[in-house]
Amino acid sequence: MTTKSLRVLVLTTSTRPGALGPAVGAWLTDTLAPVAKELDVDLVPVAVGDLDLPFLDEEEHPSTGVHRHEHTRRWSRIVAEADGFVFVTPEYNYGMPATLKNALDYLGPEWAWKPAGFVSYGHTSAGTRAVQHAKQVVTTLRLVPLGSTVAIRITDAMRDDRFTPDARHAEAAEGLLAELVRVGHALTPMREPRHADTMPGPLPGSYVRLLGPDDAAEVTVLQRCCWLEEALVNDTLGIPALHETLEDVRAWLAEWDVTGLWRDGRLLGMVRTRRDGDDLHVGRLAVVPDLRGLGVGRWLLALAESAAEGCRRVLLTTGAASHRNLAVYQRQGYAVLPDPRDDGAVDLGKVVTP
User: Fold this and answer.
1) Tally of helices (H runs) and strands (E runs) in the chain
2) Eight-state DSSP code of residue 307
């Protein structure tokens, strides 16, 4: 599960001329800016009125993801890139405004498995009935509504015709954002398999995706777990994977093509590749100890080899005393190269079949 910053959309939903919504949205983003920085959150303010969304005019059902109009495609990109939402909404006649309902109805999979918080405003009920109405809708879209809310009575928040909420409203907003971050990170494993850059893995419920510098923490844990056994077998602690700092791992994640195997937010395995002339170098092939013997390593190796098109051979390295690894590689067509090494490792190569 990546540790990248969460991108949270703050959506102001009212489009009525002279509406209070823009002031509420501006207060919210300004109030939360210091806390967002501490929580590593990017707050992105968006107004429904700036989206130019007519009443739903797409022929295909939103669940198909087929969008014919540019305004829908733009809205789809905005929502798909977000990791969570805060809806700033008034209450109109005991419900949410039609503009929010319309914006929700435009899309389907883009909303799924993301947290949704609400900041409401109104008179008698402080907008809470709009929130209850909206929660029935967002759960159908597989958004996950938060328990924390911010409810503001307009008469209590206005000072000399200026929107000036009490300190308790700011505290409630900070609590909402903190809960949204926790839920957003917890839901990441639910969101990732739906991304276009993932593909199914060899185990039920698993998937693979490219790894990057944001995944350095999980990669560091995985390789130290896996290469400790190699250190014992080869009677040496001089294995780079055991000593690399987090910054070292981030650096090579940016330089190599690295594929990770995930399930339920856990990094189960990985492999990295890099071309050098006519050779494809394969390295850091790792599988968590409890899943060894299930063919996961061979599957990852085959996936790495699929990048060898146009190469003359595939090269990899393992410990000289890593007899299990050597046996696996040799069964996959690798042969030990003749040039000896003086660091207790051996190089293996495999000719690429045209």
Assistant:
1) 11, 15
2) T
Q: At what angle do helices 98-105 and 128-140 cross, to 10 degrees?
A: 10
Quote the CA–CA distance of 186 and 183 in Å, as a whole number. 5
Distance CA 133, CA 128 (A): 9
State whether the Cα torsion 130-133-139-141 is positive or negative.
negative
Say if residue 125 is exposed, middle or buried (CB neighbours under 10 Å; 0-12, 13-18, 19+).
Answer: middle
Tens of pLDDT, residue by residue over 223-244, are 999 998 888 888 888 888 899 9
* Confidence (pTM): 0.77
Partners of 317 in beta bridges: 347
- For residue 97, give every residue at least 6 positions away whose Cβ sits within 8 Å of its Cβ, in sequence order, or none: 13, 14, 15, 89, 90, 130
Question: Which tens digits make up the pLDDT trace of 187-226?
Answer: 988 887 766 678 999 999 899 999 999 899 999 999 999 9
Contacts of 131 (CB under 8 A, 6+ apart): 89, 96, 118, 120, 149, 151
